[in-house]
Amino acid sequence: MKQAGKSRRGDGDRISSLPDCLIHLIMSFLTAQKAVQTCVLSKRWKNLWTTLPFLDFDLWKFKSDGQSDYSESEDGGPPDKFDKFRDFVCMTLLLRKASDLHTFHLSCTEMIEWPEYNMFIRSWLLYALNHNPQVLKIDFTLEGSVALATFTCASLVDASFSYFPQARNIKVINLPCLRRLHLKRVTVTRGFVEKLFCGCPMLELFHLKNCYRELYTINSQSLKYLKAESCNSDFRFKATEKEIVLINAPNLLSFCDIICLNFMGPKILLKMPSLTSANIRFERSIYGSSYDGKSNILMGLSNVQNLKLSGDGIKVLLETEMPNCSEFPNLKDLSVDSLCLSCHCDLLASFLNHCPNLEKLSLYYFGLYCKSIQLH
Question: Greatest CA span in the chain, whole angstroms?
Answer without folding.
Answer: 85
